[in-house]
Write a structure and sequence with these properties.
The chain is built from ten helices and eight strands. With about 300 residues, it is an alpha/beta fold.
């Protein structure tokens, strides 16, 4: 009996120590997972020392008739100096995320805010307002940025009408096609092209980063019989939209990774643009279909948009 109590105490102490060890490990694992999901394995964004006045982020809740009247989340990045120049107007670059995805990935992983600040501070590009809408009801809910089947699924109209009108009303924008660009990565690249082809007088610059132009056969979005698929296939719509795209001066800028499975359909789309005399630049860059390639080409994408859009 005299040995039972110390042994029990030792067992309890060992159990407590093990629980503490596992607890610390789980907390550490959770922290690592959260960090990875936020920054995709990259270091958190950090402004260069020469950027004395970074831009600012605003969280929006935009009422959307296209989505049944509910308010939909979006973020705006106001460039350096926006508040200090109250009479200046700015061009806007709308950024569409991929799937699965959320809008803040453009700031946290691709670092478009830092790209904006850096190129502005170095006088290499004009400052742009960046607008990042949330194109779904959840990170893992796929909507393809199209007007899908069912009520309140007008995701294309949400961007081209509801978001654009809200931004033009609440910020000092150049409210015309010459002051608007639309871009996206992966699924967002498809969305950018598809929306621009549906609204050929709305955006002066159209960018697709590792996107595609042949939509997937998703019955949940395009209908049981895929009846909405042809109306959301940029390859089929481009010829009809071409005269308006040429009149508005729309410029397409897009790239694929050298090992990306979408590179062949993008090359074919470049051929269509060329045949229809629509200005474009198509690049095949080293890499695959991942965050590394989008981050590495973020500055080039910004320069391409800023160089074509109107200056305030």
């Amino acid at each position: 009996m005299t040995l039972a109590r110390p042994f029990g105490l030792r067992a309890a102490a060992l159990t407590a120590a093990l629980c503490a060890f596992l607890g610390v490990g789980l907390v550490g694992a959770r922290g690592y997972l959260e960090n990875f999901l936020t920054y995709r394995g990259f270091a958190p964004p950090r402004e260069p020392a020469f950027v004395s006045q970074p831009g600012t982020v605003q969280h929006l809740s935009i009422p959307s008739p296209a989505l049944g009247g509910r308010a939909q989340e979006a973020y705006v990045y106001l460039p350096s100096g926006y508040a200090q120049h109250p009479h200046r107007r700015y061009s806007v670059l709308y950024l569409l995320h991929g799937f699965p995805g959320r809008p803040l990935a453009f700031l946290q992983t691709v670092q478009m805010g830092i790209v904006d600040d850096t190129l502005t501070a170095r006088l290499r590009a004009q400052p742009l307002i960046l607008v990042m809408p949330f194109g779904s009801t959840g990170t893992f809910n796929d909507q393809e940025w199209v007007n899908g089947i069912g009520a309140a699924n007008g995701w294309s109209t949400f961007v081209s009408r509801d978001v654009v009108q809200y931004v033009d009303t609440h910020y000092r924008t150049i409210a015309s096609a010459r002051g608007r660009g639309i871009a996206g990565l992966s699924e967002g690249g498809y969305g950018a092209i598809n929306i621009a082809v549906h609204h050929p007088r709305e955006f002066g610059v159209v960018e697709s980063w590792s996107g595609y132009v042949r939509p997937d056969k998703l019955h949940s979005i395009f209908g049981r019989n895929l009846q909405l698929l042809p109306a959301n296939d940029p390859r089929l719509l481009l010829r009809q939209a071409a005269p308006s795209l040429r009149t508005s001066g729309a410029y397409f800028w897009f790239y694929s990774g050298s090992t990306d499975r979408y590179r062949q359909q993008n090359a074919a789309f470049a051929g269509q643009l060329s045949a229809l005399r629509i200005p474009y630049s198509y690049r095949l860059v080293v890499g695959g279909h991942n965050w590394a390639i989008w981050r590495a080409n973020a500055a080039l994408a910004y320069l391409a948009a800023a160089g074509r859009l109107a200056h305030g």
